[in-house]
Amino acid sequence: MNSKLPEESMDTLSLSSLKEQEYIQWESLKLLVSSLNKEIYVFPLTASILTIIFWQYTNHVLIGSWLVAICVLSLVRYSVHKAIRQQKTLSLNYPRWLKYMLILDAITGLLAGLSSMFLTSLPQELQWLLIVVIIAISMESVAGQSAIKSSFIIFSLPFFSCFILGLILLDSKIFYILSI
Question: Which of 1, 45, 159, 178 sees the fewest Cβ atoms within 10 Å?
């Protein structure tokens, strides 16, 4: 008895599995985009509030540049999200759009982590405020970027590297412990 499938059936199966894989990729990218949509508005809003609070304690050029970079990043992210939402399943170039999303995630993680550079110039109460905000951002990233694991990893590496370095530079035992 011959257990091989006819040639026609094999082509149908591979075509079917390709369509299924394409559909899964499309849905995971859509899920990532929809879960990060609020970040487009919340990240610059949070950065603006922090800029106003920290203005008198920090270098104005540095904090202003940081805020402008976040606002520009949010505009670029909005454009990419809009372009992805307008794509149709069959015309989606998944690797290209995923690459764009991962680049944006890395830059977002870096900019969020760089907020820790303001820690050294702030009074202790505001240091704790910034640490709480950074921890909230990290918790949100777990939920928001869970659709594609590489998105979370790409965001987390620069984010936590900068945050830990900022805590270490404070030269305080409690911040050393927190950085571990």
Answer: 1
CA quadruple 145, 151, 155, 161: dihedral, nearest 10: 120
Looking at residue 19, its amino acid is K
Place of tokens 């609020």: 38
Neighbour count for residue 149 (Cβ, 10 Å): 10
Q: Of all helices (H) and strands (E), which one includes residue 158?
A: helix 149-169
The CA–CA distances, whole Å, from 7 to 4, 10, 13, 21, 80 equal 9, 5, 10, 21, 41
Cα(132)–Cα(93) distance, rounded to whole angstroms? Answer: 38
89-133 tens-digit pLDDT: 656 777 888 899 899 999 999 999 999 999 889 998 999 999 999
Residue 59: how many CB atoms within 10 A of its CB? 12
Backbone angles phi, psi at 58, to 5 degrees: -120, 170
The whole-model pTM stands at 0.80
Residue 146: phi and psi, rounded to 5, are -75, -15
Q: What is the pLDDT of residues 131-169, one digit of tens each?
A: 999 888 888 777 677 777 888 899 999 999 999 998 888
Three-class SS state of 148: coil
